[in-house]
Structures are given as structure tokens and as C-alpha cells.
Amino acid sequence: MQLTDGQYEIDGVNVLELCKEYDTPLYVYNTQKMEAQYKRLTSAFKGRKHKINYACKALTNINVLRFFKNLGSGLDTVSIQEVQIGLKAGFKAKDIIFTPNGVSFEEITRAVDLGVKINIDNLSILEQFGDKYGSSYPVCVRLNPHIMAGGNLKISTGHIDSKFGISIHQTRHLERLVKSLKIKVEGLHMHTGSDILDVDTFLQGANLLLSIAHDFKDLKYIDFGSGFKVAYKPNDISTDIEELGEKMTKLFGDFCKEYGRELELEFEPGKFLVSESGYFFCKVNVVKQTTATVFAGVDTGLNHLIRPMFYDSYHHIENVSNPTGRTRVYTVVGYICETDTFASDRQITEITEGDILAFRNAGAYCYTMANNYNSRFKPAEVLIHKGKAHLITKRQTMEDILSNQIEVSL
Fold first, then answer.
1. How far apart are CA 30 and CA 386, in angstroms?
2. Average pLDDT of each block of 10 consecutive residues along the chain (410 residues)?
3. Which of 253, 308, 318, 389, by CA, is between 20 and 30 Å from 154?
4. Neighbours of 95 (CB within 10 A)
5. How far apart are CA 133 and CA 119, in angstroms?
6. Catalytic site residues?
7. Are 13 and 288 in contact (CB under 8 A)?
8. Rounded distance, CA 55 to CA 155, Å?
9. Diameter of the chain measured on Cα atoms
10. Which of 269, 287, 303 is the last residue in one of the domains?
């Protein structure tokens, strides 16, 4: 989003005109940024055979999935529904990896029937899988390296108390299962968490995974997850992808020489690809001054953007109606009957009722976590591609809210 002649634009499209046409609250995504992030990753790892699988739980709109497919991406999914959306978006089954957690074995078999790659993260399901399929259907195995990484405990998935993955301390049990049931393990996987800043911490987990990989002789790929940090605040720091690419490609190259053949290096970024592409626009309903605080109450809440309340996450907020005004201090709150505070004591250019505020970094885990609390409608989504705005999700109506409810005579 750039300021041009006193007006904010996204790839040449006027922001205020967008909000006027599609109303607020409104999610807007820019494919130009998505493509830049994707190419940055592929460039960083160009020294090795590699594959980027977009983690679609970050933003699951079918148009976004299709856009990444056209760039050459694979797809990382965590539910059978995401698998089905991916197939509908045009991904081939072989380019979709299914990495669920805690699902029924029936869901696993449905994914097998669809022909996608299966990634199993617990010994119980792996044993059931081996009993049913033996060596007839290859699998990937998710390991937990017991490394604390990520910007928040709720998004750290590789530590010892995490529900995700098979403990590295259970590898001997894993190997016995694989051998006795003749399971063909074609891939190994790990994911330590989101917002990883320290490249060396990531490499520590990678080294652990590679040390175990020597014991599996039929590998085709190793998936190192993602969790790369993006900038949220002005002048914020992020994962040095170029440094990671340089160190990781060397590490993986050395491993492949020892292993005896070249394997595919895989990653599954979600937030890194779409977070910075997204903006969330809302309108100020009321400016309310109390004895201690000036509140800017907006026409949205935790029902549309829960991350600040759920993760204490920071989203930079700008007043796009008054981009050059004097700065004042506001606490931005929602209209839900809960304490839904987006930002406390935040410096924003002077706000008046009716102004449009923009939340940055609204491309990942924002709309996908939206809900209908207080019977509020989910907002519309707009995709800007090559300077043109496309409506990709309609704003909900009361008919949508009531569509699955059944009225009975009481």
C-alpha cells in the first residue's frame, strides 16, 4: 500500500474507492506481493532441487490457491476439506501433501483414495496405516525435534509438550513399526513453529532431522516446514531468507552426498507468502473519550480478526482517510460484546467518525479464522491482480447465517 498524491493505493487501485465499492469491513489481497515472496523463496534455495508447498490454512480462498499453483507451487493441507479445495483449484494429487493432526483414520483413508501424499504424525495412526496398506502406499513421517521456536507458545509446534509430531526419542519404535509392517517411508518432515527469526535455531532442527534420515533408505524428499518470520511493525526484523537459503542448501547438499543420491528439499510456507499481501479495512463508528483513554470503535471485531486477542499479535494500523494528519494516541476496539481490543495506546493520525482504518499483515490467519460471533456477517474478500480488483468472496447475508438452521415447532 503506497501513498500517491495524498491517497493510498494498492497496485494502482485507490483504497478508499475500494471501500466505497465493496463496503467495510473488507479484506484485500495483492498478488504482486504474493509472487514477490514466492520468487524470493525459490531464489534463495535455487542451489538445490526444491519444492515450495503453500500452507493453505493461512488463506484458503480458491483463487489464491490457483494463483500459487500457476506459479509452480505445491500445496500443504491439514484437513480433507483443504485437500478437496486444492484438487478443485487444479492441483494434481501428487503435488498435495496432507499433514493432519488428531484426525480419524477414516479421514486418512479418504486422502489415500484421493491419491495425495500422506504425512503421519503419530505412531498409533502409522501402525493402522501399515496394517491396511503395508508397502502399497508410501508415507511421510512428521517428527518432533523438541526445539522451542516461534514467536508465541500457541504457534510453537516443535517443543517437548507439543501435540504435533512423533518424538525424536521414539525413532527406534518408529523404525520397528516401519520394518515389521513393511511401511514405505518416502519423506520426513518437521515444523517447529511460526515467527522463527534465528536461522541457527532452524538449522539445529534441520540437523536433527537429517541425522535421523540416514536410517530411512527409500526417501524422496525431506520437508523442513516453515515458520519464517515476516515484518509486522515499521522497521521490524524478519527471517533472513537469503542467509537461510545459503546455509540450508549447503547443509542439504552435504547430506545428499552422504546419503548417496539427491533428494528434494521441501518447505511449506503460509504466512511468509501471504501475510504482507493482505490488508483489512474497517470504518470508525465512534470516537469515545473517557477519563483515561480515547477509543476508536470500529465496524468489526474479534469475529473478523482474532489474532490480536488470541496471540497478542501486532498489526500496524493506519488512518487511510487522513494519512498526513497530526498524530494522536488511540485505543482501537471492536463492536463485539467482548473486550476485543485491536491496539492499545497506538499512535495514529487523527481519527474522526467515518474514517477508514487499514490493518496491515492481514493476509494470513485472518479471514480464515473469522466467525459469526454475535451473528455478525463475515466480510467480503477482494483480490488485486495486475492492477485490477476482483471480488473473490461475497459479504455474508442473513440468509447465509440462517441457511443451515432448521426451524422446528416447539
1. 9
2. 89 96 98 97 92 97 98 98 98 97 94 98 94 96 75 44 80 93 96 74 88 94 91 88 93 95 95 97 97 96 96 95 96 95 97 98 97 97 97 97 95
3. 318
4. 17
5. 14
6. 337
7. no
8. 14
9. 72
10. 269
